[in-house]
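Researcher: We're teaching a course module on how sequence relates to structure. For the next exercise, students receive a sequence and then see the predicted structure as tokens, so they can try to spot secondary structure elements on their own. Here is the exercise chain.
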Amino acid sequence: MLGTVGGSVDVGQTTASVVNTHLRKVAVEIVNWALNHDWFFRSLGAANRRWGFLESIFLAYPASEDYALNYAYAYRLETNRWKPWPTGVLRQDGRWILMLAIGATEAHFRTAENRCHLHALAEHVERLRMMTHTSRATFAGVLPGLFARHGVRRETPEGDTTAHIVSRAIARVRAAHPVTEVVVLGAAGFVGRRVMRTVEGDPHVHGVDLTNTAERPPRSGSWLVVNIANRHALDDWLDALEPGDVVLNEVYPPPGRKMRDELQDRHVSLYHVVGVEASAWPSFPSAYAGAIPCCAALPSQDANVVLRSLTHPHTTTNAAPGNHRSPSATGSTRHDGPMDWRRSS
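Model: And here is the predicted structure for the students to work with:
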């Protein structure tokens, strides 16, 4: 489709966009042809067993079919709907992570007829983990929770890692804002249960069951509302927020422009947990600039948790241990666009 700027057709920009899209798709084809074979993973494993440079593998999936078609041809998505292919590498604290991707989306995961594919996917990734001699394998988005619910995997390290990161983010925001009560949306969920265990015994932390949207904890001052439930959870809480309250969002996608404007009009601060400070090749979408998602991160007590203010969009801070800088202090002048590839937890 031709784009228009000021009423004129921007042929150059459109042509460049089309060329770049095809180059990305061709790159996917080359990677599949050259590297997506057992001999590659076994060779990587042999080198890793000798030098110990690769610690984990991480599986991502596209947020939607339309977005995936910007990166791969339709037949490739169908061929690799449930078969991962290597897509990049991540580096956290000097440790390497191999990233894989599949063509399936959340819509595929949630249908009963694809339950067998979930089991096969977990087994395939575990086989790759063993071939590469890595110590762990992690999965993006809703996959860890679905695996746990359906008994696909006994170990789900993504939940514990994400809970640790979210708990540290909560502590950072509480230290910087005069909030009295913490309200955790999704406290009974896959990550929520683990977060609540980290704050067990704190009378000022309230877990909310989202099956009861009318439930409200007592208000003795400003709230910190933590969303680890889903993208729509904040909608039911907007009318309960007051000036001075703070929202901390962990889920995908980050709140959109309408929600951000609503919160700003109410004088409510909004932060997003970007992830853990690390590098990625190729780079993640701009919403992950300077970080990798919580579910991909390696466990570390010293990892820098990256928070980003969405009501003050040029603000970024790394929550490093012992760093008591306010999250509202400008640490970056990056402006974030929407995140489209599903790598978040």
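Model: If you want an answer key for the exercise: Confidence is low (pLDDT under 50) at residues 1-12, 320-345. The longest helix spans residues 11-35.
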